Amino acid sequence: MKQFQSFGLDTSNQCLLHQGTQIDLAPKLFAVLRYLVENPGRLVTHDELLDALWPETYVQPQVLRTYVLELRKVLGDDAAQPRFIQTLPKRGYRFVAPVTEHIEAHRPRMEMGSHAPRTEAIIGRDEELDFLKNQLDLLANGQRRVVFVTGDAGIGKTALVDSYCQRIEASIGASVGRGQCVQRFGAAEEYYPVTEALSQLASGTYGEDLHRILARRAPAWLEPGRNGEAADAAAPRFAAQERTLGDLSAALEEMAAEKPLILIFEDLHWADDSTLNLISALARRRGHAQLMVLATSCSRRGPNVDSLKGLQLDLLMRRLCTELALAPLRKTAVRALIGRKLAQEVLPPELPDFVFQRSEGNPLFVIAVVEHLIARGVLTRRGENGTDQWEQCLPFPEMEDGVPDSLARMIELEIERLSEEDQRVLEAASLMSFAFPVWAVAAALEKDSVETEEACDALARRLHFVVRVGQDELPDGTRSTFYVFAHGLYREFLYLRQVAARRARRHMRIADRLGELFAGREADVAREMAMHYEAAGEPERAVTALTALNRPAPERVC
Predict the structure, then answer these.
(1) What DSSP string runs through 164-215?
(2) Nearest partner of 71 among 277, 298, 231, 275, judged by Cα
(3) pLDDT of 9 strictly over 80
């Protein structure tokens, strides 16, 4: 049960409750409300809603407005001063009311597949929260702060910021404005997350202060109201012309002089140059101000990655910012996360180790792997009268059983954005069990080693899941650079997406190349050659390769 103010959203019975009275909603109307409630506090774009609720079907975006208008009537909400659904013109909607999870006594567990409520305590991030608390203490002393929270997709950046915001609300009366950089859109519109954060501030308790200060300090940033329909008038709008960084910076500093001001920009790797320039300007100004910029970004990702990296390095060198890089969760935290997902303390004995190995401590991957095991029937619920527990009923799946569907879709979107040549390089790299050397990728694709190394290096600079590790010396005295996939599930996805015949040919080429490189020393790589021959569907050649293990080593000539 999702609770917000006097309403409850019963996801099991697909109905809305108001002070105990059931309100039946049409299926699509309920689906729109549920999606917004399960993603509180952030921008849900029109495209995201349409893709989630009408997949593979073309629907006019105007349909969403009709549903939102109907929901406002049901909730008694006002578009001009929203308590529940805020409209962000031409962008989407944000559910602004706090949402909590109410677990009924006769159902003491979280429904599988539901999103964890934003109000739940974050697991395994106590040190990071303490670090951010220290930044808040410095802010209270008038020291402006710029903090970059970085990490791979799914590592928990947003969850950390959500938890931090709850602490802020409980400890100090700060003004918090939050802006979301949106893929394929944020970089095309100047100051996109900035205007969203300002809109949120303007629609909050301290909106009058913001209006007053902007009107005096930076009038070009504040546009007087437009004539329009009520559904589109959720928040003041900000002009798109003649805006200067100096004016806005001065206005924000004045607001921060009266009380702490925290600007949160999420997914900064999708941001435009203007937003990055504003962060740079705020960091470099010398006056004291209770002003903090807290930005999240994914390592080596996005169209503006070079500009973002340059900004971070420059500010770090000048000691004008701090970076908090999120590491994967420890095994104990993964165990606790599984326990909360399954709503039970005692887990199947081998489950935590398996999930930890498959997820490598990435929280998003942890949940996806658990849901994958449930969907495959590996985990099933046993027991009666409310005492049922999740138990392991089948062996844990091997790699060939596939990547969890939710992760496969996410990885596929990342891969499909690359050129066909880059995709071929990554597919060839996935044929190696762990680290992939340049010579093996070149052999699989029948390409020149130098060109292949340049391609791998370019991918390592641009992609967060490819990492350059070092070099290895080959028997002929040459050196070959090798790389690793930062997460094994990326390698598995790339391996499984190749058609069997093409994959077999590539395995064969790698095995043959191993034989050429280690001629006379086949015993050193016999098992590796046999693995590739077997994967290529050549069991006899795999056996022949293994016979090298029984041959006497060649005598060395001194």
Answers:
(1) HHHHHHHH---EEEEEE--TTTGGGSTTHHHHHHHHHHHTSTTHHHHHHHHH
(2) 231
(3) yes
**Structure pTM?**
0.66
User: Six-digit token pair at 473?
Assistant: 């010396």
pLDDT digits (tens, 9 = 90+) for 503-513: 999 999 999 99
Whether residue 52 contacts residue 43, with contact meaning beta carbons closer than 8 Å, is answered with no
**Strands 145-151 vs 479-485: parallel, antiparallel or unpaired:** unpaired
Helix axes 488-496, 420-429, angle to 10 degrees: 110
Q: Which amino acid is located at 249 in the chain?
A: S
- What are the tens digits of pLDDT across the range 421-451? 999 999 999 998 778 999 999 999 999 999 9
Strand order in the sheet with 479-485: 436-437, 479-485, 466-473
Interval 484-494: pLDDT, tens: 888 888 898 99
Helical spans, DSSP H, in 46-191: 46-53, 62-75, 126-140, 157-171
Residue at token pair 């391609």: 455
- The distance of Cα 184 from the centroid of its chain, to the nearest Å, equals 16
Residue 371 has φ and ψ, to the nearest 5°, of -65, -35
239 φ, ψ (degrees, to nearest 5): -65, 155
Report whether 35 contacts 52 (CB < 8 A): yes
Q: Token pair of 545, please?
A: 């390769």
Contact yes or no for 146/292 (Cβ under 8 A) = yes
Backbone angles phi, psi at 81, to 5 degrees: -135, 75
